[in-house]
Design the sequence.
């Protein structure tokens, strides 16, 4: 992934907050999203604590062309359909606009707008690509066979539910479900509400059904990235999974951060995949690639109703993932399955090897309950608990870029 | 499900072919679909060997109202969103039109039109609701535990792939995939291409996320039905399934018959579910219902390139299904998952208990290879083979209604 002047660490914007220390949206980021402020939802770009209104910039003559037009409407799907070259063209135009003549009339405060899904989620496939996540949970279950049998040969995945994906900030209703309690099957509100800290991947363009996207072309299918909370209901999931996999344990709700951090914005953070462990089979040739892992620190924080600030409970390294987003695309299309613009992939829980890098509660509990600064403890999530994800890409010599937040609060189950 | 004069067995249409013996589309059926004949795709109704053009009937003043308008465009999703009452209103108007003053100018020969998907498939969930399918395959694997552990408590299901659903007649490309051959993992064209004979279920209306559709209201979410071939790649499926279920073994292609046989049209064929086997746990109260099984005979036929006519290899009774479509809806939404108009459910392979009622090749092979009338044999499907599904609902005193056909031909795999 080549980088260019839009990534220069010294670049500054006339939007002063873009230069604020620790800010997720410096001029090097330029993530795209769909916002509204009373009127119809439309395309915007996060810059500092502001949103640049793409339609207003077009109307003012500060943007032009097909890429900007495709990003101005109520959905980013048209831009995803145009593909990576269009996104690159738009990035350059946005960088020029936001480093050029000030135009504060094109801005809205992020605090004053509502964020929507970047597009209708067409299909959602969820992977299980972290060695540490699989190995930690698998070792607890069956120490002799901690990993799924195909783990070294392909990125294990399942089709998940597209209709229930919601933007950050949407509350999450505790679901009812069937599970085993005291030896009997019950239908009751879950007692095992969990989160899974994942990276979401938005797909660019469409491959014709029957025609795989080879690994050599797979990186060009990665439009952009977000944070993704694959809310998981462990008691229901355990009960229902054999043999067809997760269903109602996952389909209740999935939360995503609303800003799409483009593949271009993450180019400076590419790095080599971690080496395979000694004795592991090699990567199959049709999935072999290089230097397409991404250096992203991902975080989960928990805030209970009696806490005044969130407490970080997970810090996980995305660069440890065993399979990369490009490998996921190559695998997913290897049978000819057509991936569409507006499709969303989940990376799977991004856990690292260290204590504190467990990216879901099921893993944390292997060390014991969560202890919070105010003395409270948690096994699974309780009503009123809020989970907040954040993430920052970082690399030596590059300006860090972030994802904003992905948050959700657990509402009590409906009455019977 | 009440019936009315539109079901009367003696009812006849001015479309003479509607009265032809063994015809799937008598006046009592009135299935909806999207067709084109050179121009833009638009709504139509199958009657005998003809298609009634809904937009033309509106323009001619022979249909009117919101329901007909919703069925006239390039997708049936607007009518599915309006729901069952609108579909009933349209059924009555169509019955009146096609039994009233002849209007042959509103017809197109089915042989002269192309059929499309009835709407964009929003989400596709596939169930495994046949006791006989599960028990037959499970007994071969593990005679002591033939059924999935939750089988008696819920209709087992997984999220499947929406983007790769195609109308009958679209060829199916043999996929590449990873599987074990001679003890090693290979990536190669599959050697185990199978079909699964299923009923497809189109969903009406939308339930708000977090709000289940109770079993008492679930039947009203059933818009209509089609035949569905859940093409399955057994070697790939076996390899990839643990622990997250089927993925690339299913997502290559799913075929459906293009005509939507409405829930109203099937009302005369409702019957009681089969009794649970002795000693089985009772149906959970939140899924308990009655008389919503459907009497449908489903058939699969195979035609190889050297055969001149198809040969029936499967005859299966849908009324034997352990879980009904309404129970599937109640279960699917029981965690608050929102089902949308345009969502498609698959019933799972509709096998019966008898020899000859195995509704996929994996089951047939437990008795041995398929022997065809011309002396050919088949284990799994070979290139050029065509699979053709048909189905007819039947009941004493009712005019039988059918589904048309769902067919697909296997194309050779792409070169490496």
Sequence:
């Amino acid at each position: 992934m080549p980088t260019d002047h839009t990534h220069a660490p010294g670049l500054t914007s006339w939007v002063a907050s873009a230069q604020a220390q620790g800010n997720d949206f410096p001029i090097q980021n330029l993530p795209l999203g769909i916002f509204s402020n009373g009127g119809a939802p439309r395309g915007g770009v996060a810059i500092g604590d502001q949103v640049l209104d793409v339609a207003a910039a077009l109307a003012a003559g500060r943007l032009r062309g097909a890429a900007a037009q495709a990003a101005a409407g109520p959905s980013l799907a048209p831009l995803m359909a145009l593909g990576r070259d269009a996104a690159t063209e738009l990035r350059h135009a946005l960088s020029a606009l936001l480093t050029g003549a000030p135009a504060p009339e094109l801005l809205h405060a992020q605090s004053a707008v509502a964020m929507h899904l970047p597009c209708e989620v067409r299909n959602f496939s969820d992977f299980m690509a972290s060695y540490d996540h699989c190995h930690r949970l698998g070792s607890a279950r069956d120490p002799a066979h901690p990993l799924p049998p195909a783990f070294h040969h392909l990125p294990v995945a399942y089709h998940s539910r597209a209709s229930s994906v919601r933007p950050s900030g949407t509350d999450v209703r505790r679901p009812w479900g069937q599970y085993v309690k005291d030896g009997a099957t019950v239908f009751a509100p879950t007692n095992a509400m969990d989160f899974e800290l994942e990276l979401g991947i938005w797909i660019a363009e469409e491959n014709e059904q029957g025609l795989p996207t080879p690994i050599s072309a797979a990186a060009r299918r990665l439009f952009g990235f977000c944070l993704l909370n694959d809310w998981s209901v462990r008691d229901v999931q355990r009960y229902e999974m054999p043999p067809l996999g997760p269903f109602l344990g996952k389909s209740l709700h999935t939360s995503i951060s609303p800003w799409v951090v483009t593949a271009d914005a993450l180019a400076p953070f590419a790095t080599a995949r971690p080496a395979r462990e000694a004795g592991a089979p090699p990567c199959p040739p049709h999935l072999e690639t290089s230097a397409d892992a991404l250096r992203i620190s991902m975080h989960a924080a928990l805030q209970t109703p009696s806490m005044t600030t969130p407490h970080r409970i997970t810090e996980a390294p995305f660069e440890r993932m065993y399979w990369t987003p490009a490998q996921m695309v190559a695998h997913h299309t290897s049978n000819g399955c057509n991936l569409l613009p507006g499709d969303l992939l989940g990376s799977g829980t991004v856990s690292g090897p260290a204590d504190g890098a467990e990216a879901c509660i099921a893993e944390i509990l292997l060390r014991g309950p969560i202890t919070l600064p105010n003395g409270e403890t948690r096994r699974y999530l309780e009503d009123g608990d809020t989970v907040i994800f954040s993430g920052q890409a970082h690399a030596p010599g590059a300006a860090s870029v972030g994802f904003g937040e992905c948050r959700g609060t657990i509402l009590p189950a409906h009455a019977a």
The first helix of chain B runs from residue 54 to 59. The domain at 124-411 of chain B is CATH 3.90.850.10 (Fumarylacetoacetate hydrolase; domain 2). The radius of gyration of chain B is 21 Å.
